[in-house]
Structures are given as structure tokens and as C-alpha cells.
Description:
single chain; 177 residues; alpha+beta; five-stranded antiparallel beta sheet; 28% helix
Amino acid sequence: MRLNHSTTSIKKYRPKLPDLMQLCECNYLLMCKLLLGRNQFIKPHNKEQGETEEVGDTYHFFISEQLAYTILVKEVTRYTTLVYISQNQAINADANFKSILSPTMHIRLYHDARMAEVNSSQNIRWIKPRYDYPNKKMHLPDEKQQINQFLKEWLQLCLRQGQVQVNFLNNDLMDES
Length: 177
């Protein structure tokens, strides 16, 4: 019996760029809602009007006594801002286990495109749009989409349960999808 290779081949994952772009736009809006009340953070770099964010600015969002999030401004340019977000938990565990339970991300905010994209997360220094599967580090084929979705859920948690009050004009940003 001869196998037909066209029917037995596995389709490679292809990133859906419109879906990823929509997710990055949503993350930018959620980040704006989260930080806008704190200072002039989410605005294009404009020295003439005094609307600049500072490298080293730190924001804390307390969800409970055991859980908090920290956002740190790492880099500011004319059209982008790089932020570092980390989850801080009060857990008693060894360093390796604690790092698994305390996720971190570097997020690039593109003010001109109004998008926020996760550039690195945990031990992934640069997230590729697609990974072959299986792979050495066992990244999912859609790892970039998954990590940006995780950022969306993180931002929603900070907005819903963090010590930040925001009035939502559009409830679509807070859906659980």
C-alpha cells in the first residue's frame, strides 16, 4: 500500500497577522486605560509640550495581599516606549519554582501605530511569530499569539481587581476571549 504524502503531511502553523494586530491594538488600549490616570505616560514623546515619560518610572498594581504587578519604564523614544511588567507573589518556594510562578514580559508600545507587542517573556529573549513543533524548547507553534493573549488577560486583571479605577466606554475591551 502506498501512502499519499499530500494527505498525510501535517500543515504548518501560519500566524494570522490580522488577529495578532487586533490583539496588539487591544493591549495598547488596555495599557492606556491602566496607566493614563497616573501621568502622561501613553502619549507620543513631545518635549515641547512637556509630555514625556521617564525611564525608571514604576507603577504598582495590587490585586490582593499575595499578588501584585509592577510596570517599569525601561526605554523611551519618540514613537515607542519599552516597559517591563512582572508579577510579584508572596510565595515560599525555591528560586527556580518561584521564577515559573512569577511571569515577566518586555512590551514595546508603538504610539504611532497604537499597538503594544510582547517582545520577550520569561526565558524567551525574542519571540518568533511561529515555531516548528516539536522543537527543542517545546514552544507552541503560536507562542507569540498566546503570550500576547496572556498580556491582555494580565492587563484585564489589573484593571478589574487592581487598585486603579477606570470607567470603560467600550466593554469589548474587557471580554474574556
